Amino acid sequence: MTAPKLRLVDEAKTAGPPAIAIEKLTKTYRTADGDVPSLTPIDLDIRDGEFVAVVGPSGCGKSTLLKLIAGLIQPSSGGVTVAGKPVVEPPDDVGIVFQNPVLLAWRSVIRNIMMPVEVRRLDHASHLARAQALIKTAGLTGFENKYPWQLSGGMQQRAAICRALVHDPKIVLMDEPFGALDALTRERMNLQLQRIHHETRKTILLITHSIPESVFLADRVVVMTDRPGAIAAIYDVPLPRPRTLDMMGAPVFTELARQVRSHFYSQGNID
Ligand SMILES: Nc1ncnc2c1ncn2[C@@H]1O[C@H](COP(=O)(O)OP(=O)(O)OP(=O)(O)O)[C@@H](O)[C@H]1O
Predict the structure, then answer these.
(1) Which residue, judged by its Cα, is nearest atom 29 of ligand 1?
(2) For ligand 1, is residue 74 a contact (CB within 6 Å)?
(3) Matching InterPro entries, A to Z (predicted)?
């Protein structure tokens, strides 16, 4: 294994058309109490099929970045392109997973997962088969007809991930999806997410507060500065796939995690 490599320049631009292209992106929230600059110019390209994790201090603008990519809010300047198209509204080709699974209590697991299909009026039969395949991958077989309140927190989050994938989006954006889970469930979810990424080859952008989680899952880890957020560094993760939890003890893993963590200490901010 090679030593972790620090990159301050985004070299992904050379590797074919990016799935997500972020160019000179800024966001300042206008509030009654004044302006809140949340992102300073961000430039980042994410390759098709790449798994990118974003870490940074609390309030540095990570969720803002995700919402801009998802077309849920508008930038102050600059822009985002998804699959070659400028984002002006939520693109069809994007699935989103939030920290809270936000499942509808009165709908069964399968009917929650099928919601994006209903909303987009897609073919029911083919997507039902897809939902069932996702349920299997996510280890939820047998729970299709249960209601969210009959599932554990981890199972609910797995159902939310299935829902984000059911319409077969090319890109999945995840905002701290495992933050509310206990450590063991979180590790299992990490393994399952890795498997889903391997089997579906989606482009995944994961926001996380966990440095080990970012190193374990990602091809690249983007470290952000304090608000207004900018990119402090981008690290390649040279660990082979599939990754095992044992790899977390490998010198290359701990060294990379140490390097990522050092940014937080240097900013006087341990999140
Ligand atoms: N709708 C809004 N109006 C005004 N300010 C906002 C709004 N949303 C976010 N902010 C501010 O923008 C900054 C960045 O917020 P954001 O939620 O993007 O940070 P974050 O890095 O995701 O934080 P955390 O890690 O704590 O979830 C914060 O100072 C926040 O208070």
Answers:
(1) 59
(2) no
(3) AAA+_ATPase, ABC_transporter-like_ATP-bd, ABC_transporter-like_CS, ABC_transporter_ATP-bind, P-loop_NTPase
Strand partners, 224: 231
**What is the Cα–Cα distance from 111 to 193, expressed in whole angstroms?**
22
- DSSP per position, 192-223: HHHHHHHHH--EEEEE-S-HHHHHHH-SEEEE
CB 173 within 8 A of CB 20: no
Query: Pairing state of beta strands 203-207 and 51-55?
Result: parallel
Expressed in angstroms and rounded, the spacing between residue 265 Cα and the centre of ligand 1 is 21
In this prediction, the answer to ipTM > 0.95 reads yes
Contact criterion met (CB below 8 Å) for 213 and 53: yes
Are the C-beta atoms of residues 252 and 5 closer than 8 Å to each other?
A: no
195 CB neighbour count, 10 Å cutoff:
14
pTM for the predicted model, two decimal places:
0.89
Are 229 and 57 spatial neighbours (Cβ–Cβ below 8 Å)? no
Over residues 29-69, the pLDDT tens digits come to 999 999 999 999 999 999 999 999 999 999 999 999 999 99
Task: Tell me how many degrees the CA angle 181-182-185 measures, rounded to the nearest 5.
Answer: 80
User: What is the set of domains in the chain, with CATH numbers?
Assistant: 6-93+169-266 (3.40.50.300), 102-168 (no CATH)
Whether ligand 1 lies within 6 angstroms of the CB of 60 is answered as yes
d(CA 75, CA 22): 11
